[in-house]
Backbone:
């Protein structure tokens, strides 16, 4: 067990790191952020910030020497950077990050365990895409294998001819058939160093333009009927990776059962509601897991919970939203409210 007062290193400096650092502080730990950017919203609420690039081996080693345990809040941390941390204790493991960083690896991994996915094929050349359109057909979605998030790096192909002459840009891609779903939901779990697993209630998630807009708990009937099967798969994946920490799994609820879409080896936007809506939040249980503390109770703390992201200009409504005592408003301290940028969120509890 890591005793309180010790330092937790967090790779990545965004809002997830910010909320992890706040949870670490609640349990008496110090947080040290490693992030290249000067204006890290995680560093703002932490005791230390190493501002250095991901390829700076000396800075990584010095950071590691200062931390009792290290975690990450961003799944695109280069694997080489993790190797630069030497023998430091890192949770979740490098392997979990390797699997989740690449949409193809992730889908292969889940499919090998018997999970259901959208039909998919790796795309490296125009010929591969032609073959995928023959085998899988349209409509479908062409996605970069790496570094896509919030709908970035994705192109919808409604008809086969839309793929004609498409510039692949030399990046490894994946083509997925479009899944017809009743709704989307996520399974979020925490797994301790002893292998104990806890789940939060599954949220039903609505995305707009590929970005999460709302998460609602309890989920509707279409999702609720599929949570058990989705949890079984999520647990299998976590066990196979000997995972330590919080992981999120996104699913489509379909007539054929739950279809796995993607996993995040970290705390997740669709779990922000747990800060006020559950007895123990995803952030606190992640800190507990990586520090070797017992996991906290994940039971719902309200009858209904609704989390709404404040994206771009929508954050201007924060003061008005804060006037309603049922709302819990979070702003991440980001400067510029660019369109599509997650500025904060509001969680509304119905007791
Ligand atoms: P992703 O980045 O893969 O999570 O995709 C973002 C969102 O796009 C998902 O939450 C879905 O709403 C939608 N989407 C992605 N892939 C598919 C698919 N194969 N079929 C249907 N919708 C999809």
Residues:
């Amino acid at each position: 067990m890591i005793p309180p007062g010790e330092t937790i290193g967090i790779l990545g400096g965004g809002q997830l790191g910010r909320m992890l650092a706040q949870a670490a502080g609640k349990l008496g730990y110090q947080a040290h952020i490693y992030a290249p950017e000067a204006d890290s919203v995680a560093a703002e609420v932490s005791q230390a910030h190493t501002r250095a690039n991901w390829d700076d081996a000396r800075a990584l080693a010095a950071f590691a020497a200062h931390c009792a345990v290290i975690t990450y809040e961003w799944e695109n941390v280069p694997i080489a950077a993790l190797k630069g941390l030497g023998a430091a204790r890192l949770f979740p493991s490098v392997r979990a990050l390797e699997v989740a960083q690449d949409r193809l690896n992730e889908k292969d991994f889940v499919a090998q365990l018997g999970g259901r996915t959208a039909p998919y094929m790796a795309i490296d050349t125009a010929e591969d895409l032609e073959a995928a359109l023959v085998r899988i057909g349209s409509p479908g979605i062409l996605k970069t294998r790496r570094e896509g998030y919030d709908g970035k790096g994705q192109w919808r192909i409604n008809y086969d001819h839309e793929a004609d002459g498409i510039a692949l840009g030399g990046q490894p891609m994946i083509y997925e058939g479009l899944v017809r779903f009743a709704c989307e939901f996520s399974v979020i779990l925490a797994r301790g160093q002893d292998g104990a697993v806890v789940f939060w209630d599954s949220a039903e998630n609505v995305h707009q333009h590929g970005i999460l807009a709302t998460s609602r708990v309890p989920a509707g009937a279409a999702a609720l009927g599929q949570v058990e099967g989705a949890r079984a798969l999520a647990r299998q994946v976590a066990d196979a990776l000997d995972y330590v920490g919080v992981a999120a799994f996104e699913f489509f609820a379909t007539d054929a059962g739950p279809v796995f879409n993607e996993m995040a080896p970290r705390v997740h936007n669709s779990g922000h509601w747990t800060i006020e809506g559950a007895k123990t939040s995803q952030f606190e249980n992640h800190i507990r897991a990586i520090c070797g503390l017992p996991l906290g109770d994940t039971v719902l703390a309200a009858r209904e919970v609704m989390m709404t992201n404040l994206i771009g200009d929508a954050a201007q409504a924060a003061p008005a939203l804060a006037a309603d005592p049922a709302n819990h408003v979070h702003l991440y301290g980001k400067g510029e409210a660019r369109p599509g940028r997650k500025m904060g969120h509001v969680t509304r509890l119905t007791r």
Remarks:
- The two ends are 36 Å apart (CA to CA).
- The longest strand covers residues 245-254.
- The chain has a mean pLDDT of 96.
